[in-house]
Design goal:
single chain; about 550 residues; alpha+beta; three-stranded antiparallel beta sheet; 18 strands
């Protein structure tokens, strides 16, 4: 059996016009300028496909732009040049035998003949986190482990790449030829390389632009001198712990030893079983990792790195973490965060005039939260937000400050709502909600504000340099936050018992002073907080109140008897 990834259709694509279609690797690259994105079964596959296949093929076959000006030439070309297209076709033809997914000698991203000492195999559902397999038992799995799952080679290829990037940790089956196996198992396996960081990727208007935005500019000519996994010797069951040698090695890192087992059916080859064993272990995330933001520690503990990848938090939108994505300066004497190498590069491109002022940049974030001993997947995080490229330029920090102000206002308004709920519960004779329990109004507010934040970001993209328009947008934003916060507050007051009006008196925890909690004081505290958080909306509210008072006074004068 054979399935050539270079020429057989397996990548779901979304063309600018027409219906979604599966294309081969070569077709996808040659038509990248006509494709808006990829259509994949899981959002985590997007970084997996880019890093394991598309970016390494382009980088190894063509190299990367060597300067900002050369990058601009590639960008304005809107597609690979005829010479580059010929090089890509020749490259994939030269490595065709290594892109055969079902090869008996060197299957793509696998180990030929991989087997356990007892010849055991497992259902291919092992590669799919949403399917029941072993210790992973999702609540809504559509199959049990006893049922047979059949995957088309195209589907199996995607889940194979996903496993190489995001696989769970813990115990893996021992493989014949692995000298580190103990009692038929290997222990201490970490999660896949992308599972150890919060992935941040810039996206363009087309797949071609996305590839270009994710290629680090190769100033010193070193990036393309490494080797992707298919350019080296075929893999074996043996593995090692080591650092990544270069960018191509990092992108095509083989964190697992895998063999897909296919059978012939009336509908063609179908992958039903798999052997999955331990693979290479990345000793540390290298500083040239381009797809993550970073945490910095001024005084690290013994054995702790002063710089490590920043993880995404479940339940939070990408715009709530914009502080890390927009921080360009590296902290020196204090703890802090900094943005990814690629987003910093976007800022440099914008400052050099290589990107249009209103370029519709999008930033996608991906992450996985693992459960018990990192052996199961608890949450998959994927989000995408529009972002003005200007905010990543060092000379547009005023725009950056406005954007971060809006994000901070949303968080502070949510906190003020949660505090009001706590005061109302105390006024009614209850206790505040525990930190990890209950439904909080602040979370409801952030959910309501989510589309408005994205609309604000999109508006900033259209006119990033017009301060009048930006201020008008911020004023409208604050009005929306004020309105929605008050609306949710009214709903909370409606659900509060009447006894909260009289209130309760409680002794303060660390003093003899007695605190009085009433619904009226809770309302006043929220209003005072909103006036501090939303100064533009507060000023507009005062103007409206003054206008109402003036109108009311004029009405009284008209009605007064002569």
């Amino acid at each position: 059996m054979s399935f050539d990834l270079a020429s057989a259709p397996w990548l779901g694509t979304l063309p600018r016009s027409g219906d979604p279609a599966e294309l081969s690797l070569l077709e996808t690259l040659l038509k990248a300028h006509l494709i808006t994105g990829l259509s994949l079964p899981s959002p985590t596959m997007m970084p997996a496909v880019l890093r394991q296949v598309l970016l390494p093929v382009v980088l190894h076959a063509l190299g990367a732009p060597r300067s900002l000006q050369e990058w601009q030439e590639w960008f304005e070309r809107d597609g690979f040049s005829p010479e580059q297209r010929e090089k890509l076709a020749t490259y994939l033809n030269e490595h065709r035998d290594r892109f055969d997914l079902l090869s008996d000698r060197a299957p793509f991203a696998q180990v030929a003949g991989l087997a356990t000492p007892k010849g055991e195999t497992k259902s291919v559902a092992l590669l799919i986190p949403s399917m029941a397999s072993g210790n992973n038992v999702p609540v809504f799995s559509c199959l049990t482990e006893g049922e047979t799952l059949e995957l088309r080679p195209a589907e199996a290829a995607l889940w194979l790449l996903n496993a190489q990037c995001w696989d769970t940790a813990a115990i893996k089956s021992g493989a014949v030829g692995d000298d580190k196996v103990k009692s038929g198992k290997t222990t201490g396996n970490p999660v896949g390389p992308l599972g150890q960081l919060g992935v941040v990727m810039p996206l363009g208007e087309s797949l071609y632009e996305t590839i270009l935005l994710n290629l680090p500019i190769d100033y010193d000519g070193q990036a393309a001198r490494g080797k992707p996994q298919w350019a080296g010797e075929p893999g074996t069951a043996s593995w090692e712990s080591r650092p990544a040698r270069d960018l191509l090695d990092l992108w095509t890192w083989q964190s697992r030893r895998i063999r897909l087992i296919a059978t012939d059916t009336p509908h063609g080859p179908r992958v039903t079983r798999v052997v999955l064993a331990a693979g290479d272990r990345l000793t540390a995330t290298p500083p040239f990792e381009p797809h993550t933001a970073w945490n910095h520690v001024a005084k690290p503990r013994a054995g702790q790195s002063p710089r490590y990848p920043r993880r995404h938090r479940p339940g939070r939108s990408a715009w709530q973490g914009l502080n890390a994505l927009l921080t360009l300066a590296l902290p020196e004497e204090s703890d802090g965060v900094s943005t990814s190498l690629l987003l910093r590069q976007v800022g440099e491109l914008y400052a050099a005039g290589c990107l249009p002022a209103n370029y519709p940049l999008r930033v996608a974030t991906y992450g996985v939260e693992y459960g018990n001993q990192s052996a199961v997947v608890e949450h998959v995080m994927a989000d995408e937000v529009p972002l003005p490229a200007a905010v990543l330029a060092a000379d547009h920090q005023d725009l950056c400050a406005l954007l971060l102000e809006a994000v901070t206002q949303a968080d502070r308004a949510a906190f003020a709502l949660d505090r009001m709920l706590s005061d109302l519960r105390k006024a009614a004779g209850g206790d505040p909600l525990p930190r990890d329990k209950g439904n909080r109004p602040g979370e409801v507010l952030l959910h309501v504000l989510d589309p408005w934040v994205r609309r604000l970001l999109a508006g900033m993209i259209r006119q990033p340099d017009d301060i009048v328009v930006l201020e008008a947008g911020m004023s409208a934003w604050e009005e929306i936050v004020w309105r929605e916060t008050r609306r949710i507050a009214v709903e909370l007051f409606a659900a509060t018992p009447l006894t909260a009006f009289g209130g309760r008196t409680k002794r303060a925890e660390k003093s003899e002073k007695k605190d009085v909690y009433r619904s009226a004081t809770a309302d006043k505290a929220l209003t005072d907080a909103l006036r501090k958080i939303l100064p533009r909306a507060a000023e507009a509210e005062r103007d409206r109140a003054a206008e109402r008072n003036q109108t009311s006074g004029m009405s009284l004068q008209e009605e007064a008897p002569v």
